[in-house]
């Protein structure tokens, strides 16, 4: 991934200059990748800023507990909605907010295919990869790429993120499936019935006790209690 994302000299200069403004060496920083615009309501649900900040604050409190001292709150915001910056500064005045609203403006549906928009999304990905922790939606490829590049930087970033929707995946991977271990009868129109032994194709964990998926037995799509399933492991014979 790092080889594929290697920048040319002019882009590398822009990335270096932008990173200097964020000042990563000044203390820990959490990266927030907040996707809105065209994906909301189709591929992903809307998530309020407060949902991201809840997990951000949890992470900073853990750092304070570990180090036994106060830790300055700092976040880097990557988003296609420029209003997030003013909202973050107004609602969370104790946080230092980094990011560039100009990049957000180029990410709108009218200009996101311009060269400046491309540079902007690359810079956001590079900045997210340099953060100490990520709070985002893994339904977004921008966040997943930032996380993948973070892996290269730290070696194992398995504990360095919180996704508000999907588990980590890569495009084209084998379907993520689970097996039902306890039956369940839907209690609302948004839920699906489960029978022991059903195979569920999981679309995402909602992190509220429920996951969303498709019951392969009848094609029903909806929410189900996460604890009533287990992973369906595919055992591949090796020579």
From TrEMBL:
InterPro entries: Fut8_N_cat, Fut8_SH3, GT23_dom, SH3-like_dom_sf, SH3_domain. One of its GO terms (molecular function) is glycoprotein 6-alpha-L-fucosyltransferase activity. Residues 35-36 are annotated as: Important for donor substrate binding. Pfam families: FUT8_N_cat, SH3_9. It is a single-pass type II membrane protein. The keyword Disulfide bond applies. CDD domains: SH3_Fut8. Belongs to the glycosyltransferase 23 family. This is Alpha-(1,6)-fucosyltransferase. It comes from Anisakis simplex.
